[in-house]
Amino acid sequence: MSQASEVENQLRKQILSMELGPGERLTERWAEATFNASRTPVRAALQKLESEGLVCRDGIRWLVAPIDIAEVEQLCIYREVLEVAALKLSASQMTEEQLSGLEALLKEKNSDATEEIMDDAGTRFHLQLARLCQNAFIIEGISDALRRLSRARWLDNAPSNPAWEDHREIFAALRSQDTEKAAELLAIHLGESRLRLLEAINSSRRSLRARGIAIT
Q1: Residues near 94 by Cβ (< 8 Å), separated by ≥ 6?
Q2: Residues 71 and 105: beta-carbon distance below 8 Å
Q3: Does the predicted TM-score (pTM) go above 0.85?
């Protein structure tokens, strides 16, 4: 792995985990010292993360990109369109092996699992659903949307989050070969998730800003 790729991966991990908060200032010197890297790979890494919407420029400075509520809403809608289309496309090509893989992910939910583990398993469930369509461009679009949304989704900590029950119902429809019903359930699930996430961000905007999290 090149030094630029290593810096890029480490920075991305810190940004997506909210270790580096939205709006936090980044300097090339800090990155050089933190990742023991020279200036050229650090700049290449920052430019790559800028293209992903994770960092931005403020004049000559670099910042961790603020969470943009309008962008979050647009990404959620974009994701909904792609995921539902992907599931409908998969109707004639699902294999038993793929269904077993989805079922295994659903079994990862248990009372001892941390929120971080469950969030990762939920993301993998949606990515595995997307892969059923076998369309590389759609899969990449969904993957990119999930990556860009991952910081905002940290803010949806409602204890009544029904995601896993929804996932089971979607899987049950797929298992019974009712792809249309599965797509309908997925659309409802994603729409409700979008509304819940936007409500969580809007209702917590003041406290989030007080914690130094930039919301625009």
Answers
A1: 132, 174
A2: no
A3: no
